[in-house]
Structures are given as structure tokens and as C-alpha cells.
Design brief:
By secondary structure, this protein is mostly helical. It folds into 2 domains: about 70 residues, Tetratricopeptide repeat domain (Serine Threonine Protein Phosphatase 5, Tetratricopeptide repeat, Alpha Horseshoe); about 50 residues. The protein has 8 helices and no strands. The longest helix has 14 residues. The protein starts with a helix and ends with a helix.
Length: about 140
């Protein structure tokens, strides 16, 4: 895996303005349990391409994992602003809001997720969360 990381780092050096190169490096570093390095790379992806929905959603997920919830919330909101019909962004943001105890907002995000993807494989699970959060 170390060789893979080195290849990904070389890719970011060769194409420093390519957000996908930074995202791939960030995700690989996170897979190797280097949360700090992964988040740094994902922040660079956002910096070089602030309009990259993929960069924002991956940054939000990484920040949520390290419990940097306020920063994760900003990243998810940016992802949704860039692509309001992103079911994944609404789902992930709903998960974050649920962790933060913002149940009403989480329910809204989960409902939006299901309205975009009514046939989602996890729709029963998400409906269970909605029910639990509203009672």
C-alpha cells in the first residue's frame, strides 16, 4: 500500500490542480488510518476545485469520522448547494445531523434522500431512523 500512496502523491505533484488526484490520495490515506493526512489532501481538493461536489462530500465524511462535526456540516452543506439532487449528500448529512442530536434537521435530510431515491436499498432502514427520530 505504501507504493500506492507514493504513486498517488506523485500524481498530485504532476497534476496539482486535479481535484480527483487529491481526493484519491485523501481516501487512500484515510484507508491507511492517516486521518490527518487524508483530511489535508481532501481540503486541498476543495481548495483547487471549490465547485467539486465529490471533494466536499468526501471531506465531510472524513471530518465526520474524526468528530469535527461543525466543519463536516459546512462541507455537506457545500456539497448539497453544489448538487441539490445528490441523494448521497443528503443521506450523509442526515447521518451527521443525527450524531449531532439535530433530529428535526436529520429527519428532513433523510426525507429528502428518500424523495430523490425512493427505491433505495436502505429505504426501510432510513424510514426506521425517521420514525425513531420523530417519536
Amino acid at each position: 500500500m505504501k507504493k500506492d500512496i507514493e504513486k498517488l502523491k506523485a500524481r498530485t505533484e504532476a497534476r496539482p490542480q486535479d481535484p480527483d488526484a487529491w481526493i484519491d490520495l485523501g481516501l487512500a490515506l484515510i484507508d491507511q488510518r492517516d486521518q490527518e493526512g487524508g483530511i489535508k489532501a481532501l481540503k486541498e481538493a476543495v481548495r483547487v476545485s471549490p465547485d467539486s461536489h465529490r471533494a466536499h462530500i468526501n471531506l465531510g465524511n472524513a471530518l465526520r469520522r474524526v468528530k469535527a462535526w461543525d466543519s463536516a456540516e459546512v462541507a455537506f452543506k457545500n456539497a448539497i448547494q453544489l448538487k441539490p439532487d445528490s441523494a448521497g449528500a443528503h443521506h450523509q448529512y442526515g447521518q451527521l445531523l443525527r450524531l449531532m442530536g439535530k433530529n428535526k434537521e436529520a429527519v428532513q435530510e433523510f426525507k429528502t434522500y428518500l424523495s430523490i431515491r425512493p427505491d433505495a436499498a436502505d429505504s426501510d432502514e432510513v424510514n426506521g431512523w425517521i420514525e425513531k427520530l420523530t417519536t
